[in-house]
């Protein structure tokens, strides 16, 4: 049952793989923004994760070590962001943009000499006979572990934000940092921890691109995935499960346009390639127009620096 | 002293760069006592209570709680010792519900389900009904304060600190609050009550300590002193009460008819069919609890929100669809409540801020170029006439204290000699002497033939200067009535009475 030469089971399977990097980066950024910090350096952190993950995996021979390396690399660069915005109170937008540019340049430098090498492969999770279930097995149950880990992370973030005290404090800090401070919560410390968590997620996402999805190292390998992740957070109106839906939607569009290209659709390739980005812009315009629900859900202190005055 | 001392302070001092906020402050609070801390803005009251609550550490001096040394390094420690505080502002989260807000103020909150039950129980026990599942952003000011009080009460405090708790309440809500506080005091909880409203202190407090410029200048038993005596101790000088001219008002200058406009902010209140007229030489006072459409009314009158042409008329000419600069040309000047960021650009100098609103009426630009000499003269003039304490007119607006900036902003608008002037909270956060000056300036403007609209939450202020009074309640304006002969009770009812009580009772019946 193919449509225009596209097999739906294969399409869903590749959609799930394609959406892992943006889903991870977006859920990380969601936590950061819930704490009231706007980190536009997601793209830079992702590509640092991609290059650090790749280098670690090549040298250790283990993709899992690679993921840890990727997370560590992204957290290292996010510490600069944390220092500038939380200690020196630099403008978050400008700092975030600078982190993206810095990350792109630094990753390119670090990746010198790694072009053309194949990283150690990531095995699929063996689910035995389940994988042989028609359609479902092929579409949903024959993936590597990170696909399932990323969904578990979304579930975990949702549960923590909704039900735990830590989540409540995090939301409170993002909502009104003066009040949180007055009640004795450590606004700056909570925000730095959130930034580090967001960076670790972006790093995992980046490492997934260079280790599984592509898998090799080239300059600029993340190709704007970080920006799409930022858009998904807004699209999801800061709700974790909607991040999952958003990531599948955008992952789906990416995969679909690749499949359409391969199937020889009579649309110029350029239009297909730009479609995920066009849809990103479109979604952001629709979501931010008027005083929609998205505006109500945004953390009230988003992007504002906190300075404990007397 | 025979009484049982709960909290004692000895020689507490705290210095900030350039200011001695507290200088050798000593006093004590007895168990079950309602103790007032009185003083002007900037007298050091807030710094002092922040030290008791562990937000700020004193430089010198010591505190004792039930005879034991007490030096809380952070609010958590203060709460553990039985000290709770109801903040003036900055302590609630709009996007979270009542129960979540309460949980954030507790160190070991029970599970949400149990907490919701406790909130219902305690809030009804003290006559302050609250629905734990409601979003705080949707509550009235009085209900929001209940959330804070309940948050404190759930922790069985020995000492409850209340920082200016009545500034946002209707008179009926104040009565309910006082009932709760008396009940608490009778149960043995001490209350440290900070305010500059003397009548309230007379009604509620057992003892009072008066601060001026960081020092204790006296203690008294409020019931035995007159409000005037206490005010003079607070200010350290005799006070002038503004004088009204008592002239007959002229023809209608400003007319507003069927003004309805949606609020630009998510938690704001939309205006619904507002009607009123103000005559030349008349002062209309518009009262109401914060968040009932005051900001929106100011925006609609200043021209920041545009409405159909005939909804706002000046001298019978419709101007509802014109912007702020056109309206200034037509004679309407406005001063919004938020001083930094709305009335004044924080990082610009006073000269530049003077230009921003004064350019049209004072002719400060020529063919698109700024006439700096005239602008500086205008700014100097405002600073001199309104006694704005600033190093110079080149100082950034941000660097001025709230009261000084308010004098500058009000002065800037009044000195443009508008035919209609609209002000929101003209004396908010301004000390008594400066407030009296601002009120007098508004009255003088009215005497010179302007129509004045004063939007204020301070009922005493409205009674002092307004000729007629109207109440804004959930975006609707009542029929204006003469202020002469109006009683506080009548005003309270016009303001919507005990806000939220009604609703809480209804939901209780359904529960």
TrEMBL record, chain A:
Chief place where the protein resides: membrane
Transmembrane keyword on record: yes
Keywords, in A-Z order: Cell membrane, Membrane, Transmembrane, Transmembrane helix
Pfam families: BPD_transp_2 (PF02653)
GO molecular function terms noted in the UniProt entry: transmembrane transporter activity
Location relative to the cell: Cell membrane
Name of the protein described by the UniProt record: Nucleoside ABC transporter membrane protein
Organism: Albidovulum denitrificans
Automatic annotation (TrEMBL), chain B:
SUPFAM superfamilies the UniProt entry points to: P-loop containing nucleoside triphosphate hydrolases
Gene3D superfamilies the UniProt entry points to: P-loop containing nucleotide triphosphate hydrolases (3.40.50.300)
Primary location class: membrane
Keyword check for Membrane: yes
Subcellular location: Cell membrane
Keywords on record: ATP-binding, Cell membrane, Membrane, Nucleotide-binding, Repeat, Sugar transport, Translocase, Transport
Top-level taxon in the UniProt lineage: Bacteria
Molecular function terms, GO-annotated: ATP binding; ATP hydrolysis activity
Name of the molecule in the record: Nucleoside ABC transporter ATP-binding protein
